[in-house]
Amino acid sequence: MANKTEISKADLNSQILHLIAEEMAIEEAELSPDVSFTDDLNLDEIDIAELLMQAERQLGAREFSDAEWEEVRTVGDYLQLVEQHLERKPKTKTHAKPATAKKKKK
Questions:
Q1: What class, spelled out in words, does domain 9-85 have in CATH?
Q2: Tell me, what DSSP letter sits at residue 13?
Q3: What angle is formed at CA 44 by the lines to CA 41 and CA 21, rounded to 5 degrees?
Q4: Cβ distance 12 to 83 under 8 Å?
Q5: How deeply is 20 buried, as exposed, middle or buried, from its count of CB atoms within 10 A (0-12, 13-18, 19+)?
Q6: Which tens digit of pLDDT belongs to each residue from 15-29?
Q7: Cα(48)–Cα(87) distance, integer angstroms
Q8: Domain residue spans in the chain?
């Protein structure tokens, strides 16, 4: 059984696209990576900033810097940035103690 914190990239993209559609009252079918927020969806910088804040709240993404969100132009830019900011818990490894070699006495 897969860990709930592990999610496929396709599922993650689907969640992110759903977030955009829900927050901006847009049909998910209108969203693809090459869609421009400003030219195609008529969103402004405030809308994009709000979407990033929702990614922080709803998906657990780390906080975005102003410089980062100002670079978001397309749905694909947003997907990539949110993916980079999601905090993923690394798989825990059990560390066995290294065996110490015993030297033979001569």
A1: mainly alpha
A2: H
A3: 45
A4: yes
A5: buried
A6: 999 999 999 999 999
A7: 20
A8: 9-85
Both structure tokens of 42:
């008529």
The token duo for 5 is 């914190």
Q: How far apart are CA 35 and CA 15, in angstroms?
A: 17
Rounded to 10 degrees, the C-alpha dihedral 71/39/77/17 comes to 140
For 68-102, what is each residue's pLDDT tens digit? 988 999 999 999 999 999 855 444 444 444 455 55
C-alpha span between 103 and 28 (Å, rounded) = 67
Predicted confidence (pLDDT) per residue in 59-69, tens digit: 999 999 989 98
What is d(CA 45, CA 59) in angstroms, rounded to the nearest whole number? 20
Which among 69, 35, 39 has a CA at the least distance from the CA of 51?
69
